[in-house]
Amino acid sequence: MKHKIEWLVGRWEPADESSAVVLEILRTARGLKVRAFNQDDGEEYIVSKTKWNGKNLRFEITVPSNKWRTRNCLTPISRCKFVQEITFWELWKKRSVPVSTHKRRDVP
Q1: Nearest alpha carbon to residue 83 among 1, 30, 4, 28
Q2: Residue 2, SS3?
Q3: Centroid of chain to Cα 14
């Protein structure tokens, strides 16, 4: 498993090129460091909570321009591929209170 940490080091983009996001993963004395940015407009993202558990690299990204936040889990499957699992948060607001669909029973 130790060699898989080395598989992650490098510059990454989605295989289908569906996004302008680029991840750069560097090996440092303290472990792995992730840099994330948009290659179209140059916006740098804020990366935090980076942790390698021996199988996966986990970290969070915040996009300053729109406040999007994601939790990312990268699982290396070869020297040139990883699978990314993404969780993202977004605020929702209630538009209306649901109308009850239950018929009301009159109590005698």
Answers
A1: 4
A2: helix
A3: 13
Tell me the helices (H) and strands (E) count for the chain, helix number first.
Answer: 1, 7
Per-residue pLDDT of the chain (108 residues; tens, 9 = 90+): 567 889 999 999 988 888 899 999 999 998 899 999 999 999 999 999 999 999 999 999 999 999 999 999 999 999 999 999 999 988 888 988 887 766 666 655
> Which pairing describes strands 46-52 and 57-62: parallel, antiparallel, or unpaired?
antiparallel
DSSP sequence for 23-49 = EEEEEETTEEEEEEEETTT-PBPEEEE
Q: In sequence order, which residues have a C-beta less than 8 Å from that of residue 78 and are 6 or more positions away?
A: 7
CA atoms within 13 A on the CB side of 29: 0
Residue spans of the domains in the chain: they are: 2-89
